[in-house]
Amino acid sequence: MQIDALDTPVAVVDLDRLEANIAALQAYLDEHGIANRPHIKTHKIPAIAQMQLAAGAIGVTCQKLGEAEVMADAGIEDIFITYNIVGAAKLERLVALARRARLSVSADSTEVVAGLSGAMAAAGLELEVLVECDTGMGRCGVQTPEAAAALAARIARSPGLRFGGLMTYPTGAGTGPFVREALERLRALGLEARRVSGGGTPGMWRAHEYPEVTEHRAGTYVYGDRATVKAGAMGLGQCAMTVLATVVSRPTAERAILDCGSKALSSDLLGLEGYGLILEYPEATIVRLSEEHGMVDLSGCNERPAVGERVTVLPNHCCVVSNLFDIIVGVRGETVEVVWPVAARGALR
Amino acid sequence: MQIDALDTPVAVVDLDRLEANIAALQAYLDEHGIANRPHIKTHKIPAIAQMQLAAGAIGVTCQKLGEAEVMADAGIEDIFITYNIVGAAKLERLVALARRARLSVSADSTEVVAGLSGAMAAAGLELEVLVECDTGMGRCGVQTPEAAAALAARIARSPGLRFGGLMTYPTGAGTGPFVREALERLRALGLEARRVSGGGTPGMWRAHEYPEVTEHRAGTYVYGDRATVKAGAMGLGQCAMTVLATVVSRPTAERAILDCGSKALSSDLLGLEGYGLILEYPEATIVRLSEEHGMVDLSGCNERPAVGERVTVLPNHCCVVSNLFDIIVGVRGETVEVVWPVAARGALR
After folding, report:
1. Which of A152, A189, A243, B57 has its CA 20 to 30 A from that of B180?
2. What's the ipTM?
3. From the CA of B292, how many Å to the nearest CA of chain A?
4. Which domains are seen in chain B, by residue range?
């Protein structure tokens, strides 16, 4: 099947670019002796995770338990869940998963550690736990190196748990000083951080500037998106995922309506102008989205599309687009080569 | 099962409120002799569409072909697709659907009308087509009453099509003057608008102020959301859909992290402050979302939640939340009564 035969809106991945992106980051991290643990939340597809592992990744990262379950179902063995697992229902599933995969998780509070310890000890298992450190993001994570060392000590003495190291997201300016002081405090307590796990796509090519960080978790790099291009981490020509759309209305000379709305592109702006870049009409702006309508301002365009014309939209944020589609179509040039279910998508997992 | 046993994040609908919302709008529209054609894009669930029909709706509205196919599969007979159907693949499906449902669609250009006519005439079918009029939204739709009349005439003389009337969204200040002039021009051409279809939840209780409008399409009213409350169309106590979430981190005194991020709440702001209202902590603000994290500013709160605590979030925009969940849990009081698959969800349909 040729790409032109696909109905719209549809999310398409250029396989040549996907493969090149996987190879390029692996080569860079190999060159610098940094372990590669890609984040599968971007693609949520076991087959792409297997490509990353075949290229040299030591394991994968998941953002939620359900993603990890899907990856384990596909035979992936080494899985790091970078999320506080909270509550009896999830702890029960975590125990079941720990029986069949080499699992590690992060934690940022004694409450979370107590829950993990209770569940794992009762099951007679030992789980590797890394301390999540907030080194600048302002999301989860302990706030100081002292707190990191104290939580590490708590993990180390908790039945059913093994202290594994430190985790932060993203690796950035604050990471070095925080991690160095935390490592010093850990040494003073006689604790060893087997891993220091950093992450992020925008800063991936500077991972070697943080010698304390032993592994890198990048997700977006497999596909790339408008935000990654704006951050300077990838070029437009490396972006592998696009959404194909059809012009369904041209109500005025300056307005076009696409059949991709917030259900295809998401409402994520990430500081960008407009909700995606129309590759054939780069001067156009997707100014507003309804669920099924993308409203396009053509006032900056000399050439303008007609009703029925197909266009190619580079999304602002590829991870959320993955989650909105049940399948991703892999193409080689103009030919459809594979259709992947987005196996780990969905809010409920 | 009790509501407390549900794992989070999960989208829950209060069935008492859902039923009351359906009854209230039906009673209002009945009182004013306006036909009720609810928009199912909010819930995407055949069982709720059946409740709307049982209450007195004359049919349903769908925003895309795939939604209409799901409704027809459930035995729903009268379906209006308020969208330009463009392209051979979709026209083929439209023909198949027209063979098994009483279908009408909207169109806003000669290109769309030509496509519809070609497909329907070739199949030996007759499809009712309404002219979409832009009476203030600035999305799809013909721009003037003259253009509406001209397109109506085009539809009326197109093989396989029957002119059905006018459609606009939302019904608003510009609707009356536009529609009155268009109807006058239609009469001058000897054309009858069997239906004038308006829509929208924020303005639903003013539908009777537009006597030219013969049917009303509201979607959001079944669930209600923060935007509807802000618009004054529903009270907080009428909102039926919430997202249950768990506090997974309390990194600082003023920050909490919920396990509902943009994959559960969407990034839709709709002009509101924050990404949802935490009912137990109304002074809190959900200031930022990652895919799996809701970042909450607690600085305005005297009482503050602990790690592991469950909270109830009223979303900004319930329609996009529906699309993000594979199931919706219907509860009566604290008891789970039904679990509905969101059968018509997804970007691909």
Report:
1. B57
2. 0.97
3. 7
4. 3-9+234-341 (2.40.37.20), 32-222 (3.20.20.10)
